[in-house]
Amino acid sequence: MRLAIVGATGAVGHELLRVLEKSSLQFDHLALYASPRSAGSTLMFKGEPLTVQATPDGPIDADVILASAGGSVSKALAPVWVKGGALVIDNSSAFRYDDAVPLVIPEVNGQAALKHQGIIANPNCTTAIAAVAVWPLHQRYGVKRMIVSTYQATSGAGAKGMQELETQTHRLLHGQAAEAEVFAHPIPFNVIPHIDSFQDNGYTKEEMKVAWETQKIFGEPDLVVSCTAVRIPTMRTHSEAITLELHHPATPDEARELLRHAPGVEVRDDPAAQLYPMPLTASGKYDVEVGRIRASLAFEGGLELFVSGDQLLKGAALNAVQIAEYLQEQGALGQPTRATALS
Ligand code: A2P
Fold first, then answer.
1. Confidence class of residue 334 from pLDDT cuts 50, 70 and 90?
2. Which EC number(s) does the record attach to this protein (predicted)?
């Protein structure tokens, strides 16, 4: 099995390499691609330098391509890669709402990946983190309405987002002006209720992604989801306050017990010991932290929870690799000829 990463030099690309180092995915060859600016540079994989190539306009000689170079690159090139025989696991939003493209979180709807026609979409990071925590509750109690408020890290905007936080913080602490480039306003010491473009209904595209994608992944087109998405001055890991109205009443103890056994979830919920989800503890973790689980005052029998999940991992790189692992376990990726080795 020949594997390629497009966008290998980016924030998600970096995590893909780290996740692949620890993954059970069997592949014979790994090729790295980015923009022409990065051609010839090297990235380390399992202690070996691998050379980055400029992404070609045509097909890529790989069985599986993990694409993380943005929507316009995926839109233009993923169909070409598929024609060339590759399966594309795409991290961008380019194909997520296409009925022919499965949108997959292995813990929730892994089987949908088996029905692909060449492209499988990886969900939006905010959606993925919420879905891992809410899906087990939905299966048991049936979610009627889901209200989400987010606290999203700068790395959601890629490596340049983190860079802007660092540069602006340094400038502001030294009495200099902070020029906003990536975000609409200076991000240090601020919160910005604006992620992606505003839509006609007053919500942003990021907020609507959480609604559309949760409905598609859960297979529940009528599920009511409303989100307010906010950028905060952290480097990585998104947090979310989630309110759930449920068809069948839940108690916090039951929900905690259920989530303790749920895949991809770590219950971190002991307020008396000041134990709850935070970016500080969730960063670098594969599991999504869930805590502050309590009976909702807004909806009788409903729940309130707080989640923190490393959006570069479960919200992007990890989920993409888990999709490939799932397909390989199901015998749906072709047989690797030997264990991981590099050329
Ligand atoms: P490069 O580093 O050469 O610009 P991030 O989301 O962190 O900003 O990363 C985006 C990734 O997508 C980087 O690896 C970047 O490469 C890559 N990229 C950006 N534009 C293109 C392009 N036109 N073709 C291929 N890769 C691209």
1. low
2. 1.2.1.11
